[in-house]
Amino acid sequence: MSRAMDRIAPCLWFDGKAEEAANFYVGLFPESRIEEVVRSPSDYPSGSEGDVLVVYFTLGARSFIALNGGPNFTFTEAISLSIDCADQAEVDRYWQALSAHPENEQCGWVKDRYGLSWQIVPRILPQLLADPDRAKAGRVMQAMMAMKKIDVAAIEKAASS
Questions:
Q1: What pTM does this model have?
Q2: How does pLDDT run along the chain (161 residues), one tens digit per residue?
């Protein structure tokens, strides 16, 4: 199978759930698809011949790799994927689909069922945080810091206060 790859693509490490995770992510985002599933050869040191080793997939027109690397490494908040959301409805949709660990939610960040962190960001938030009126940006930042899921109406209210 021929697949197009970005020159640089994140490789996400999973413990046996690479294909499941890739299918889940592909189902959430437009312009997404599984490109190729590579199965382990007979002499692969762990797992069985034919087990899924690597999944190449595209999310929103960006290339990703999912690797079944085993239990040695897990995701941390040191890396996250950020979703640019047009409006509150989009924020709500992705939040509902991805949030699996409510105790880890803050400021628009969620952790999904595979342990991967996501930032679910309404497009207006970075615009308001970059506003030349630094007092306005500060009010928006304070409002955001008190939130789990970003509430667009609440940050707009903080900006106009």
A1: 0.90
A2: 556 677 899 999 999 999 999 999 999 999 999 999 999 876 665 566 578 999 999 999 999 999 999 999 999 999 999 999 999 999 999 999 999 999 989 999 999 999 999 999 999 999 999 999 999 999 999 999 999 999 999 999 999 98
- Measured in degrees and rounded to the nearest 5, phi and psi for residue 64 equal -140, 160
Instruction: List, as one string, the DSSP characters of 99-127.
Output: ---GGG-BTTEEE-TTS-EEEEEETHHHH
CB 51, CB 17: distance < 8 Å: no
The CA distance from 71 to 41, in Å, is 20
